[in-house]
Amino acid sequence: MESFKVLVYCFLVFHFIPTSNTLETIAPGQSLKHNETLISTDETFEAGFFNFGDSNIQYFGIWYKDISPKTPVWIANRDVPLGNSSGVLNLTDKGTLVIVDSKGAMIWSSNTSKAVTKPIVKLLENGNLVVEDETNQDSFLWQSFDLPSDTLIPGMRIRSNLLTGNYTSLVSWRDTQDPATGLYSYHIDTNGYPQVVITKENTLLFRAGSWNGNILSGVSSETLYKSFNISFVITDKEVSYGYELLDKFFVSRYMLTPNGQVSRYMLSDQTKSWQLVFVGPSDQCDNYAICGANSSCDIDNSPVCECLEGFVPKSQTNWSSQNWSGGCVRKVKLDCDNRDGFLKHTRMKLPDTSKSWFNKSMSLEECERFCIGNCSCTAYANLDIRDGGSGCLLWFDDILDVRKLPSGGQELYIRVAASELGIKLLILYTI
């Protein structure tokens, strides 16, 4: 009988002892060491120290818990790795997260500055590492979602502040084994009508485009998956962009690669591996303004560049040798009066909006009248294509970075002189 009691006792003790060094919260006075991790409540995400095969180069990050190989979605000390596995993560009494090395030197800090009574660290189910006050959980003292690395996951947003000009962005890794800050940035440009862009340092490489109510205008509609709720929000203070999953059983991530491409991955149920479902830039026509001013790019044509209707190459010699950088100029100067008109182009990626003007309440007809009354206005389109279209988006001077999309796109109305309208109508009637 006694031996049976001992067996039962041992079963109970060993059955309920945690089999791994995992924590759900960290409080002041506690430390997270290299062999310990934080896990989210549903065990989707895990946070802790890791390396890329060299134990002398350690990072603190967040990854999907049960997906192999390990896929980091956020890294705290990406530019200052620890020199060995003796580093720890601490939470101070003031609610600041700090990473210190074996000598106690601070490697990274969250720089939390809000007053706090009882701080605690949690890893939320959406992968957001947060510091909150247990006595007041209305808002976070700090969150990793405010400091994206190279990956956008559901619930996370990139933001641009319209008052200060500051913005958060995806920033590429240096290479696939080095998460240090790379050369590329994926962010919202708030000049003119806001648009999502990829830049290399200060050079614009690719425009995912402006928001048209359904999708970014530079993205083909065939990539608008039913499993995503993508949103682009403009307020008086900021512009933000992100997505949610409509089905919680889907797993998706959106990342900026070390070579400057933005890629969307979905986790395959069958293979349990990441499947690439979207990449941009994806072809020659995605390169910013590859055809120069007042031209259009169509990947299904050869050559891919052509002048917009009403325009001719600035240099025919260069154009014939497929040097398109000089772009196109008007055949006929605008009359700058009501005799000018507009030619409609369909399935278009809208031009660069950095020098555009917009109005949310105007109709398309009002937009046309407004444009015709301004001599420098060269094109217009609906701001929002939903429910028959609404709002007004205007361009001035040269038109840049237009392409024909394989599907979707928008109607774009480009201003030409009255004589060019006559030529267009004559062509239509003789076909």
Overview of this structure, please?
By secondary structure, the protein is mainly beta. It is elongated. Mean pLDDT is 90; it is low at 1-19 and 425-431. It folds into three domains: 1-145, Bulb-type lectin domain (Agglutinin, subunit A, Orthogonal Prism), CATH 2.90.10; 148-282, no CATH class; 290-430, no CATH class. The chain has helices at residues 2-16, 316-320, 364-372, 418-430, and strands at 22-23, 25-26, 31-32, 37-39, 45-50, 59-64, 72-75, 88-91, 97-100, 106-109, 119-123, 129-133, 136-143, 151-152, 157-161, 170-175, 178-189, 195-200, 203-210, 228-234, 238-245, 252-256, 262-267, 274-280, 295-297, 305-307, 311-313, 328-330, 341-349, 357-359, 377-381, 392-396, 402-404, 410-416. It is built from four helices and 34 strands.
